[in-house]
């Protein structure tokens, strides 16, 4: 057991190096907002020589910042709810009702897994514009839901297939209709997979940059990534302010991650490894 | 895996049961669905008609049709305004693309990203996974930390690292001052810009692959490892002969996500280099955005979109074929 | 083949001491069964012998060599796991030959030895299959084959039959016993099933809470249990253990009488009782009796005896088969 001491040492060193490479930039980002530009220029990684709160304050007191966050929140929440509803309903049909062509329709929907969103941004832009949804949150919500369907339906259907058939049969004997079963049994029992899907869809929407970039033109509609780069454009070299903005924008995501990490990891890996 | 549904999509990820469950004789498929016969008084059809159309409608309108239209637009020269494209150019846009050095460069860059994802991100993820998959509290903390880059928004990550690599005001400039070097501007340097991007790319995504491998490693029964120790396997041999072969399904999943993700790289590029210096670090998507959408050359941009689609499609088919083939051989 | 010596072995998991101080000798070529209830430490002991668990104190000698600090693969042992632990991605041939491959044995020799093991276990038609294509019994034989091919000094078995159904288990018991005879190997076998122990062992070691309660030949354990625990563990139905006034009457702490050593009469006898329930098995009749002074007593009578529940009966223990256990460890027969 002791012959492998050098192995252990190598392992620890590697792990520590990677940890530093990850934490140092993040730490620098977090602390930057508390420093003056001059302080930051000479002292990126250590604590501020003097703690300045006004940079964070400037951002927090700017109503525009909160507008960005609210826009993102609205879009992400609505996207998530719609995706979960639409996808679970479709998956329910595939899991319980086989009819002629149902496999083909399922395959059709799953093709979405391999269509890169980016390949469709131009026609999507035109379509959204023709629908009059440009510059509105719905211009972002609807395409996001549409592109999230393949992944979500797959996850839901896999989960639904694993639910015991006897449950369904017993309910049927009791006279339960399909929609009723969906509402009373499938949804409540699917909380774990709903949580997983919701986490993915929400995070994807929250962090999305390209789609809002295309669809949103007025600052009041901007989501936080757009707002962040807008802010950077204004304060280009004032990294302390820019990084304060970044920190504030990332804070919800990190807090959420730490709180829900068990779920995220389990859902991601369970689903991924099983297929 | 239950249901035994047949996935007709060429890119259905491996849905069959995993290695481990194959060992139990009862890997029997869960019962499938009820089949609709002529009689259907229990509201089956009503349910189908109620539950399925929203998904079909949304998908068709906003995923399927746009892709077809993209193919259409690619044959025109159009600014994107007005009733519709009118200036038919046939394959002209594609010809232009094939001769356009910037486009070819961005295509090449995209392939480089894919290669790096497969050859660096995934092995790095696996190496990390092998180091910290055992369930100790220290490993749990490492796992969390290594996963954090993945959960950060790509744009934000790009911004953070553009600070680090900023030659004037960022960390790089500080190093220059400390060591009394000349100022370096890696992100504006034709030689260094792409390597920097690749580094951030690996930094951001290795944790994702690591998580997949950790799950797979943890699902290998401990007595399998013990048996191999009794058989005389040293740690390196355990990794090589027992663990990695059993990770093949996880590797397949990782590669799939790696390629699909790399092909769509955009958010990371913009804050770091915007495709520069001198359009040398564009990817397919950033090229599409800049030279297609922003410059209102819709037809041209759609052609790029078609290229992107074709590449993805070819990958999907090849991947499916290889993965399926590998599975049947087992 | 080799002798195994365990000297003052102790094992603790953190603050919990599971094996205080255990010493045992397994003679060369013997089939020794470690048996006991769940949590008695038998599996832990086996794993310590294998080298999969660290030893907290004492030492282990195999064939005269101190292996306490040695790696599992350097101890000259082979182990058959309860779950068989076959490598799912390798064929049967590769599974069996894996250890030899790691030892850089020449390919020709690997094939020869694998074929040899396959012949002993009748695995030849299965050599190119993968584990998932095999039945439970076949997988178990592959696991055994993997052990045989290493030509170990000691074979270790960790509840290998637990995952098999009853019929298969009975068949495998015979095969394992025949294998032992054929190979003349030292085998240490862990089980919780006393039937397996009784039928297969040259030497049984009964454990409880990390302590050896008794060791010896199966018949010795049956005929002369040294404490109530062993008495109650070996034999089915369980030995009746009676305390209270009756025990005091014999000047003992516990009186043990096997169900097959009690005579029942409707007229007279030493102890009084009422029949609670009767099982008619055809070859035997098992009576569950609520004794007045004795408590619940089980009696096994040969043949088909016409008695029914709720009847009043008298029980008489057969002289010479009454085991007296004293509180100080004294053991006598009456």
Structure write-up:
The complex is a heterotrimer of chains A (275), B (330) and C (334). Chain A has 275 residues and is an all-alpha fold. Chain A has two domains: 5-54, no CATH class; 63-274, MetI-like fold. Chain A has 13 helices and one strand; from the N terminus they run H-H-H-H-E-H-H-H-H-H-H-H-H-H. Chain A has helices at residues 5-32, 37-42, 54-60, 63-96, 102-110, 121-130, 137-162, 165-173, 178-189, 191-207, 210-215, 224-234, 239-274, and one strand at 97-98. Chain A is globular and about 75 Å long. Chain B has a two-stranded antiparallel sheet. With 330 residues, chain B is mainly α. Chain B starts with 18 loop residues before the first helix and ends with a helix. With 334 residues, chain C is α+β, with helices and mostly antiparallel strands. Chain C folds into two domains: 4-228, 3-Layer(aba) Sandwich (Rossmann fold); 238-317, Nucleic acid-binding proteins (OB fold (Dihydrolipoamide Acetyltransferase, E2P), Beta Barrel). Helix content of chain C is 27%, strand content 33%. Chain C has nine helices and 19 strands. Chain C has helices spanning 42-50, 92-102, 107-120, 136-148, 166-183, 194-200, 218-223, 228-233, 245-249; strands at 4-13, 16-26, 31-35, 57-62, 65-66, 77-80, 154-158, 186-191, 203-208, 211-216, 240-242, 254-257, 262-265, 271-280, 284-291, 295-302, 312-317, 322-325, 331-333. In chain C, strands 6-7-8-3-9-10 form a six-stranded mixed β-sheet, sandwiched between helices. Chain C has a five-stranded antiparallel β-sheet with strand order 13-17-14-15-16, with no helix packed on it. Chain C is elongated. At the B-C interface, helix 1, helix 10 and helix 11 of B face strand 6 and helix 2 of C. Strand 1 of chain A pairs parallel with strand 1 (34-35) of chain B, so a sheet runs across the interface.
Structure summary:
The complex is a heterotrimer of chains A (275), B (330) and C (334). Chain B has helices at residues 19-23, 44-51, 53-73, 92-99, 101-132, 137-151, 154-164, 171-179, 193-218, 222-230, 235-246, 248-263, 269-272, 284-294, 298-329; strands at residues 34-35, 76-77, 87-88.
């Amino acid at each position: 057991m002791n012959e492998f001491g050098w192995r252990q040492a190598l392992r620890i060193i590697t792990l520590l190096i990677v940890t530093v490479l990850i934490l140092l930039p993040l730490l620098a980002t977090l602390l930057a907002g508390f420093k003056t530009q001059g302080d930051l220029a000479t002292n990126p990684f250590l604590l501020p020589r003097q703690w300045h709160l006004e940079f964070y304050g400037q951002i927090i007191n700017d109503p525009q910042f909160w507008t960005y966050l609210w826009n993102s929140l609205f879009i992400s929440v609505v996207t998530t709810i719609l995706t979960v509803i639409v996808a679970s309903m479709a998956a329910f049909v595939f899991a319980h009702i086989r009819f002629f062509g149902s496999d083909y329709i399922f395959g059709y929907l799953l093709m979405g897994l391999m269509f890169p969103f980016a390949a469709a941004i131009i026609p999507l832009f035109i379509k959204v514009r023709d629908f009059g949804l440009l510059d509105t949150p719905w211009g972002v919500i609807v395409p996001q839901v549409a592109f999230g369907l393949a992944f979500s339906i797959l996850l839901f259907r896999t989960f639904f297939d694993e639910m015991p058939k006897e449950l369904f049969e017993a309910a049927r004997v009791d006279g339960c209709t399909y929609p009723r079963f969906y509402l009373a049994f499938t949804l409540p029992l699917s909380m774990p997979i709903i949580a997983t899907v919701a986490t993915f869809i929400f995070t994807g929407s929250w962090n999305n940059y390209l789609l809002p970039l295309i669809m949103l033109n007025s600052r009041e509609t901007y989501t936080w990534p757009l707002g962040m780069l807008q802010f950077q454009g204004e304060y280009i070299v004032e990294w302390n302010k820019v990084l304060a903005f970044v920190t504030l924008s990332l804070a919800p995501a990190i807090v959420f991650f730490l709180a829900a990490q068990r779920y995220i990891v389990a859902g991601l890996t369970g689903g991924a490894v099983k297929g | 895996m239950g249901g035994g549904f047949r996935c007709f999509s060429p890119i259905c990820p491996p849905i069959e049961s995993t290695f481990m469950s194959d060992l139990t004789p009862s890997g029997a498929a869960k019962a499938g669905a009820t089949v609709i016969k002529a009689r259907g008084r229990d509201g089956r059809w009503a349910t189908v008609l109620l539950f399925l159309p929203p998904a079909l409608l949304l998908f068709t309108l906003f995923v399927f049709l746009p892709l077809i239209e993209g193919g259409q637009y690619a044959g025109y020269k159009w600014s994107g305004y007005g009733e519709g494209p009118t200036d038919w150019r046939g394959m002209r846009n594609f010809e232009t693309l094939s001769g356009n050095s910037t486009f070819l460069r961005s295509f090449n860059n995209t392939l480089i990203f894919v290669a790096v994802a497969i050859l660096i991100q995934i092995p790095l993820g696996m190496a990390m996974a092998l180091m910290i998959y055992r369930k100790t509290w220290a490993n749990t903390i490492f796992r969390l930390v290594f996963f954090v880059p993945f959960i950060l928004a790509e744009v934000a990550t790009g911004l953070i690292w553009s600070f680090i690599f900023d030659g004037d005001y960022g960390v790089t400039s500080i190093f220059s001052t400390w060591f009394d070097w000349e100022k370096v501007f890696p992100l504006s340097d034709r030689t260094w810009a792409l390597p920097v991007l690749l580094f951030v790319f690996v930094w951001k995504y290795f944790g994702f692959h690591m998580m997949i491998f950790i799950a797979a490693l943890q699902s290998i029964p401990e007595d399998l490892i013990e048996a191999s120790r009794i058989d005389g396997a040293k740690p390196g041999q355990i990794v090589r002969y027992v663990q990695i072969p059993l990770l093949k399904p996880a590797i397949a999943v990782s590669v799939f996500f790696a390629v699909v993700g790399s092909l769509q790289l955009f958010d990371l590029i913009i804050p770091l280099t915007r495709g520069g210096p001198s359009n040398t670090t564009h990817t397919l998507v950033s090229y599409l955005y800049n030279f297609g959408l922003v410059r209102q050359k819709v037809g041209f941009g759609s052609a790029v979109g078609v290229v992107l689609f074709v590449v993805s499609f070819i990958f999907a088919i090849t991947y499916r074929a290889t993965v399926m083939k590998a599975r049947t051989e087992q | 083949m080799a002798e195994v010596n365990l000297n003052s072995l102790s094992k603790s998991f953190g603050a919990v001491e599971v094996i205080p101080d255990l010493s045992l000798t397994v003679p060369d070529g013997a089939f020794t069964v470690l048996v006991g209830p769940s949590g008695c430490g038998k599996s832990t002991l086996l794993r310590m012998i294998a080298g999969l668990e660290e030893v907290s104190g004492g030492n282990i000698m195999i064939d005269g060599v101190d292996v306490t600090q040695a790696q599992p693969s350097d101890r000259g042992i082979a182990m058959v796991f309860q779950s068989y632990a076959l490598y799912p991605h390798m064929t049967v041939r590769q599974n069996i030959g894996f250890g030899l491959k790691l030892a850089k044995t020449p390919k020709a020799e690997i094939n020869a030895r694998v074929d040899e093991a396959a012949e002993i276990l009748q695995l030849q038609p299965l050599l190119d299959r993968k584990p998932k294509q095999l039945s439970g019994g076949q997988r178990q034989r592959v696991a055994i084959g993997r052990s045989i091919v290493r030509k170990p000094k000691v074979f270790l078995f960790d509840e290998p039959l637990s995952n098999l159904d009853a019929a298969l288990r009975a068949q495998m018991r015979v095969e394992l016993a025949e294998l032992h005879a054929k190979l003349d190997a030292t085998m240490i076998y862990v089980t919780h099933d006393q039937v397996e122990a009784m039928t297969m062992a040259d030497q049984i070691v009964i454990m409880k809470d990390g302590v050896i309660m008794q060791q010896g030949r199966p018949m010795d354990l049956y005929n002369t249990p040294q404490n109530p625990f062993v008495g109650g563990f070996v034999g089915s139905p369980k030995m009746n253990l009676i305390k209270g006034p009756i025990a005091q009457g014999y000047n003992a702490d516990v009186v043990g009488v096997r169900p097959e050593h009690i005579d029942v009469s409707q007229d007279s006898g030493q102890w009084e009782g009422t029949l609670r329930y009767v099982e008619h098995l055809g070859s035997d009749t098992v009576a569950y009796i609520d004794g007045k002074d004795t408590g619940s007593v089980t009696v096994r009578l040969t043949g088909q005896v016409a008695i029914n529940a709720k009847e009043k009966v008298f029980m008489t223990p057969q002289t010479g088969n009454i085991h007296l256990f004293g509180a100080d460890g004294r053991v006598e027969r009456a």
